[in-house]
Structure formats: C-alpha cells, structure tokens
Amino acid sequence: DASQSGVIPIAYSMGIPVIASRIAGLVDQVIEGVTGLMVTPGNHKELATACLRVLREEGLRQQLVSGGYNLISDRFSWNTITDQLLDSFSKALKNN
User: Beta-carbon neighbour count of residue 70 at 10 Å?
Assistant: First the structure.
C-alpha cells in the first residue's frame, strides 16, 4: 500500500513489465498500455486479468518492456534530470 514507488523505475530499467494500481503517484509513473498496465485498487479480478495478459500476450509484454525502458532512458536519464535542474536554477536566478 503505497502512493510512490522506486520499484517501477527499477522494473523499467531491468526490462520487467509493470502492473500497478491506479492511484495518485503511480499513475504519474505508468503510461497505460505503453509502459505498464493499470488496475483498480483492491480489484483482485482485474489484477489477475492483467497478470494473465502480460504472461500470455508476448507482443504486449514486449511493448511494455520496450516502453518502460525507453521512458526510463529518456525522461529519467541523468542527462535529462541535469538539464531540468540547470534550467530550473537558471530561471530561479533570473527571478532574483
């Protein structure tokens, strides 16, 4: 039971498909059908269905793995984060 997870970015970087509950924080980390599947919190049937889909549908599984890896490699790369930080610092200095 959590609203943020460091596990999701780790799964992306390791090529592991993600299934997460549709709650604040996690919906910000998972793009439905692109980087993972989202399920209603507490809905065990929906969770089971999502798990079976990932296990049975090779194309979907590969799409989620590729999407997650691409997201983590782009949005959360050190180069991207550094650029965003430098941009924020620059804007903050200009406002003072």
Answer: 13
